[in-house]
Design a protein that fits this description.
GO terms for molecular function: RNA binding. This is RRM domain-containing protein. It holds the Pfam family RRM_1. Keywords: RNA-binding. It comes from Fusarium odoratissimum (strain NRRL 54006). The protein is α+β, with helices and mostly antiparallel strands and about 150 residues long. It has a single domain, classed as Alpha-Beta Plaits, CATH 3.30.70. It is about 10% helix and about 20% strand. It is built from two helices and five strands, in the order βαββαββ. It has a five-stranded antiparallel β-sheet with strand order 2-3-1-5-4, with helices on one face. Strand 2 and strand 3 form a beta hairpin. The chain is elongated, with a radius of gyration of 24 Å.
């Protein structure tokens, strides 16, 4: 068996499209486009598994750095780092093939580094963006300026 990492997929690429293209090189045992667990949107990469090593090598030689579905993709042999158990059969994270991994950990077998976690304290506003700034001269929201005493 030989598993390939397919990087740089278009957001709209479906598993059926991925499978159909890679079946040109031999029978595909499994083809998966990895999706975000919360949004269901493609994460831009996937995996294809062949039963024959030679078919996988043909796919790498033909498809690496080639335009597919509107984007230039990267095709490489998937590394075997990460939890064992095989993708799609309960092994790995999420739905197997490297679905959502704990933050800062690489999905199993794709062979690329995940960026380190953000080292700044989490922001209580939105999704990591700073809160909107006040206009010049306006008092900060949530505070009242009261004058104490008489006329000055």
């Amino acid at each position: 068996m030989s598993k390939l990492f397919i990087g740089g997929l278009a957001w709209h690429t479906e598993e059926a499209t991925l499978r159909q293209k890679f079946e040109e090189f031999g029978p595909v045992e499994e083809a998966v486009v990895v999706k975000d667990r919360d949004t269901g949107r493609s994460r831009g990469f996937g995996f294809v598994r062949y039963t024959q090593e030679g078919d996988a090598q043909k796919a790498i030689a033909t498809m690496n750095n080639v335009e597919f579905d509107g984007r230039t993709i990267r095709v490489d042999k998937a590394s075997d780092n990460g939890p064992r158990g095989g993708f799609g059969r309960g092994g790995g994270y999420g739905r197997g093939f490297g679905g959502p991994a704990p933050y800062g950990m690489a999905p199993p077998g794709h062979g690329y580094q995940v960026p380190a976690p953000n080292m700044y304290a989490p922001m209580p506003y939105g999704r990591g963006y700073p809160p909107p700034q006040q206009a010049y001269g306006a008092p900060p929201q949530g505070t009242l300026r009261m004058r104490h005493g008489g006329n000055s």
